[in-house]
Amino acid sequence: MTVAESTVFEALESNVRGYCRSWPTVFDTASGAWLRDEHGRDYLDFFAGAGALNYGHNNPVLKRALIDYLVGDGITHGLDMSTVAKRRLLETLRDTVLVPRGLDYKVQFPGPTGANAVEAALKLARKVTGRQPVLNFTNAFHGMSLGALSVTGNAAKRAGAGVPLVHVTPMPYDGYLGADDELHWMRRALDDPSSGLDKPAAVIVETVQGEGGVNVARAQWLRELAELCRARGILLIVDDVQMGCGRTGPFFSFESAGITPDIVTLSKSIGGYGLPMALVLFKSELDQWAPGEHNGTFRGNNPAFVTAEVALRHYWSDDALERATLAKGERIGEALAGVAAAYPGVSTRGRGLVHGIVFEDPSLAGKVCQVAFDRGLLVETSGSVDEVVKLLPPLTITDDELDRGLDVVTGAVDAVCG
After folding, report:
1. pTM value?
2. Is residue 66 part of a domain?
3. Is residue 67 included in any domain, yes or no?
C-alpha cells in the first residue's frame, strides 16, 4: 500500500484497526474464495471473514435473492416486527435444521453480532436459574462486550474492559492439563461445599476454540461435560458463532458428540452472505423472557433473513455440503501432517474446515502468515500468544483452490522453518 493510498486510513481511522496491518493492501472486489485489491492482484482467502463467509464472497445464489428482495422494496429494518422475510427464515430453520435433528428450540433474534448472542444467552441463563456465576474455559473467546469478555480467557482482551469482570470462574478446557480426566477438578469443586465455588447458572463452551488456537474438544469430553451440567441443574451454553453453520462438518459443531445444549449462540455465517445477523436458540422451557425484556435496534436485519433462508434451503436440505467439508478437512489434515513431520516444534490440529499449524516458537506463526500474504494467501494467527496459523477457508472452496492454498501454506512454512 503506497503512502497516498493509506493516508486516509491512518489519518481518520482509529489505531484499533488490526487486520489491515497484517494485509497492507486496499481490497476492492471479491468472489467465491478470492479477493482482489485495487491494483488487480488476487488473493486466495483462507480467512473467510473470520468464519462469517462459509459460503464464500458474493455467493451468486444468495446475491440473486438479495438483489431481488431489495429491488422489490422488501423491508430492510424491522426491529422485531413480523415480516415475510422473517417468517420464511423461521420456517426454513425449523424444517431444514431443527426438526431433522429433533431440537425443540425457540429462536431469539438478539442483535446482529456474536457478542450480542452471547450476552443474551448469559442474561437468560441467569434469569432462568436465579443464579449469577458462570463457568467458562481456559483459552475461550466469546466476544468483546463486557459480559462476553468476562467469559473470555485472553488477558489482553480482558484488560481492555477497564472494569472488573466478575461472576465467572475459568475451568481447564479439554487437553489444557494433559490429564486423563480433564473434568475432575470441575466435578470436585462443584460437589464440595467447601470449595468456595458457588453453583453456577451456566457453563459456556466452544467445541473448537478458534481464536484460542484451534483447540479441539474430544466428543467424549463434551458428553461428560453435558452430563455433568445436566446432573447438577446447570445450563449448558454452546457458543457456535464461529464453528456453527457447517464449519466442522455438521450444521452444529456439537452434533458429532451427540449432545443437546440448553442454549446455542449463532452468528457470523448464519446470515449466509456476510450480512450482520445472530440467533440464540434455547429449549422451550427456558423461554421466560417478558416481552421487550431484551431488545436491540438492529435485531431485525431483513436482508440477512433473506440470505440466511436461501443459504439454509440451498445448502442444508441434504448432507452434500457436510460430506464435502469433511472430505476437504481430511485433505487439509494430510497436507499439514507432512509439514509437521518435516519440522521439529511444529504440530497440527483441527476438525472439518478449521485447522491450525502450531509452532513451539510463537514468532514463526506470524512470519508464515506474512510469507503467505506475499504469495497471495490470507491466513491469520490465533492462540494465547499467536502461536497458531489458523486455516479457515470457505466451505464452498473448490478442491483445486484448496490445494493451491495448501501449497502456499506449506511453502510458507518451508520458507520460514527450512
Report:
1. 0.97
2. no
3. no
